[in-house]
Amino acid sequence: MSIETALKSAMETIPDCFAAGYIDMGTGMLLSVQGEDPDSAEALENLAVAVSNLFQGKGVRAFEDMLRDAGVQDPDAPGFGEIAVFSGGRLHVFLRTAKYPDHVICYICRDSANVGLALTKSHLSLGPVAAAV
């Protein structure tokens, strides 16, 4: 299965999901994109550059170090595995893949989405999407 097919399939299961992208944080490149309209691709292109800072920025790293020092986070973990952000009437779900820790899957949903279901369904998509890479 291609990455495009895997993303499209995942979008169909995630409530109110209208765009999905696969991002390489090392290069800041959007490696694949699926969306209902051309604006979706543009939004994901802009997000691709910011995702690296979201997962690997100084503030996030300091917070992760604090959690490790407190014994709350596994010292061998590559960092946060998922981050959800509400912004501009949208729910952005960012998921780091275990197989490729420098890769992030991004799903953009309308804010009308059931958040718990959107997070659960997006998390369930990790395996099939990472396997398609």
Layout of helices and strands, plus pairs?
Elements: H1 3-13, E1 17-24, E2 29-35, H2 38-56, H3 58-69, E3 82-87, E4 90-96, E5 103-110, H4 115-124, H5 126-131
Antiparallel strand pairs: 1-2, 1-5, 3-4, 4-5
Helix pairs in contact: 2-3
Organism: Ruegeria sediminis
Protein name: Roadblock/LC7 domain-containing protein
Written description of the protein model:
The protein has one domain (3-131): Dynein light chain 2a, cytoplasmic (Beta-Lactamase). The protein is 44% helix and 27% strand. The protein contains five helices and five strands, in the order H-E-E-H-H-E-E-E-H-H. The protein has a five-stranded antiparallel beta sheet. Helix 2 packs across helix 3. The termini are close together.
CATH class: Alpha Beta
CATH fold descriptor: Beta-Lactamase
Question: Which overall shape is indicated by the principal axes computed on the Cα atoms?
Answer: globular
Give the low-pLDDT segments. none
Order of helices and strands: HEEHHEEEHH
Secondary structure: number of strands: 5
- Rounded to an integer, what's the Rg over CA atoms? 14 Å
Q: Give me the CATH architecture, please.
A: 2-Layer Sandwich
How many domains, as an integer?
1
Distance between the termini: 9 Å
Strand content: 25-35%
**Total number of helices:** 5
In CATH terms, the superfamily is: Dynein light chain 2a, cytoplasmic
Structural class by sheet pairing and helices: alpha+beta
Mean pLDDT: 84
Outline the biggest β-sheet: 5 strands, antiparallel
Q: Taking strands numbered 1, 2, ... along the chain, how are they ordered across the largest sheet?
A: 2-1-5-4-3
The percentage helix is: 40-55%
Protein name: Roadblock/LC7 domain-containing protein
Organism: Ruegeria sediminis
